[in-house]
Design goal:
The longest helix has 26 residues. The model has no long low-confidence stretch (mean pLDDT 88). With 180 residues, the protein is of the alpha/beta class. The strands form 3 sheets. The protein has a 4-stranded parallel beta sheet, sandwiched between helices. It has a two-stranded antiparallel ribbon with strand order 3-4. Strands 6-7 form a two-stranded antiparallel ribbon. It folds into 2 domains: 36 residues; 143 residues, no CATH class. The radius of gyration is 21 Å and the shape is globular. The chain is built from 6 helices and 8 strands. It binds iron/sulfur cluster. The site of iron/sulfur cluster has 12 residues, from helix 4.
Length: 180
């Protein structure tokens, strides 16, 4: 192989290495996701099978496979991201505070998880979220009444409310048909 041929082969190799390196950086920075053509939606982690709810269990989600065919799912649990453990005592919203079953005020942790969810949506350009109904974080139409009696009322969880106030469309797991 001549010196000239050798140099051009080396140049191609160098370009491939640089391209791979560049794509890696893009992927790490999530810029790859931003330029991806598949629409991204945020989804409650427990709905995709992650055992993250207060009992350390997942929640079955209908039509998850259909959702995966159409969207890239960004899996997120605001309570875990807010610093709460798995499992944990149940929490309910009472008078705009979030109260743990033993009486501790955990509003700060719930707000932190909600703001992290919003940041993620803004960063990745996400405009839709599928969230677990009845949860003090993720409930989109119903939450428990705040007194740990098993009674539900109309209302939104902390994360669902913050996302909606910031223009993100929130759906419960029972409304997935509207996204398909
Ligand atoms: S906070 Fe949301 S994602 Fe996390 S376990 Fe509760 S319902 Fe599921």
């Amino acid at each position: 192989m001549s010196q000239k041929q050798c140099n051009s082969v080396d140049l191609v190799r160098l370009q491939i290495v640089l391209l791979a390196y560049f794509l890696n950086i893009l992927h790490d920075l999530e810029i790859y996701n931003i330029i991806s053509h598949v629409e991204k939606i945020l989804i409650s982690a427990c709905l995709v099978g992650d055992k993250v709810n207060y009992q350390g269990k997942a929640n079955a989600c209908p039509k998850l496979d259909l959702l995966k065919e159409k969207y890239e799912l960004l899996v997120f649990c605001p309570e875990v991201e807010g610093g709460l453990k798995i499992p944990r005592l149940p929490n309910e919203i009472r008078d705009d505070r979030v109260i743990r079953k033993d009486g501790k005020d955990v509003t700060r942790e719930f707000n932190e998880g909600a703001h992290k969810a919003l940041q993620l949506c803004k960063y990745l350009g996400i405009t839709k979220a599928v969230l677990k109904e009845n949860s003090p974080s993720c409930g989109t139409h119903k939450i428990h009444n705040g007194y740990f009696t098993g009674v539900k009322k109309n209302g939104m969880g902390v994360t669902a409310k913050l996302l909606k106030e910031n223009g993100i469309q929130v759906y419960s797991e029972d409304e997935i048909d509207q996204l398909l």
